[in-house]
Amino acid sequence: MNENNLDKPMNKQWFWHPKLPVGFYPYFDWPPKPKEIFNFVFLRWLQKSDRTIFLLLSFMTFYLLMPSLDTMSTLSFDWISKLIIRNLILFTIVAGGLHWWFYVKKGQDMKFKYDPHPMKKKSKLFSFGSQTYDNIFWSVVSGVTIWILYEILLLWSFGNGKIDVFYFKDGWFWFIIWFPLLQIWQSFHFYWWHRFLHIPIFYKLFHSVHHRNVNPGPLSGLSMHPVEHVIYFSTLLIHFIIPSHPLHVFYHIYWLVLGTVSTHAGYEEIWVRRKSLLQVGSFFHQIHHRYFNCNYGNPEIPFDRWFGSYNDGTEEIK
Fold first, then answer.
1. Has residue 278 been placed in a domain?
2. Into how many domains does the chain fold?
3. Model-level pTM greater than 0.90?
4. How is residue 165 annotated by DSSP?
5. Is residue 87 part of a domain?
6. Which domain holds residue 158?
7. What separation in angstroms does the CA of 222 have from each of 49, 78, 145, 265?
């Protein structure tokens, strides 16, 4: 990759974008392409990626920061307060850290930035007149709070036996395969509730808070109306139905919270000292924020292709 080209706009629509057309992951290609699926899984799971980071965080949380199941069988200030502090710190480090790197320090300037425009600082559209403050308020006051409530419910349910813990010894294959299958479930859940919130009345009442961010940043991902947060995190209720372990829950949560932080980053990659540190952005979803009525889902399942709402990012369809 020629670094000199990273500081020049690619076209009138975007400062930078990945190779187009932006497409879907190979899971549902027809006819099936086993080699492409294997290569995709290998690159995403067995090498440095957001998935491996979320998985490592899940193990760290479970083995180092989670109270015993017996402790969580009763609701108590002690373990709940530690959970609240842990989640606030984690969100601040990831969302705040990415915002600081990209938009405060401007650590890589415009390299790999999708939209050439800066974050809004004076706009009546946003709470407090600022995109950043608006995003912080809705993300923390509503988003982190509802995340914590869902997590307390699930961990308390594991502790008192309302959810049976599915251990590795109970079936190693299911224990492992449930991690990637959670992303398929999440994609299914996300597409349908997202389409629902684009019905005009529900959009006006709830989803418009999130769509204030035509040019999103890391703090925009979890910036939603409380009703949308309740729906967004309701995907976690699958663990009351499908055999799961707290590790699966933590992975699912980090995918929801930290994943939406990274996919709304507004940048494709974290670029440090002329090297790509990590891919973070989602141009597929960035297109949705720009044009509103397309790409309701994500690349895991090609719902948008199947239902006619697919925008592949090419100039011809603008």
1. yes
2. 1
3. yes
4. B
5. yes
6. 48-291
7. 21, 27, 11, 11
For residue 77, give every residue at least 6 positions away whose Cβ sits within 8 Å of its Cβ, in sequence order, or none. Answer: none
In sign, the C-alpha dihedral spanning 250, 149, 140, 77 is negative
pLDDT (tens place) for every residue of the chain, 318 residues total: 556 578 888 888 899 999 999 999 998 988 888 888 888 887 777 777 888 999 999 999 999 999 999 999 999 999 999 999 999 999 999 999 999 999 999 999 999 999 999 999 999 999 999 999 999 999 999 999 999 999 999 999 999 999 999 999 999 999 999 999 999 999 999 999 999 999 999 999 999 999 999 999 999 999 999 999 999 999 999 999 999 999 999 999 999 999 999 999 999 999 998 899 999 999 999 999 999 999 999 999 999 999 999 999 986 544
For the chain, the residue count is: 318
Q: How far is it, in rounded angstroms, from Cα 268 to Cα 276?
A: 10
Of 314, 208, 218, give the one whose Cα is nearest residue 266.
218
Residue 85 lies in a domain: yes
Q: How many CB atoms lie within 10 A of CB 306?
A: 12
Angle at 249 between CA 266 and CA 139, to 5 degrees: 40
68: in domain: yes
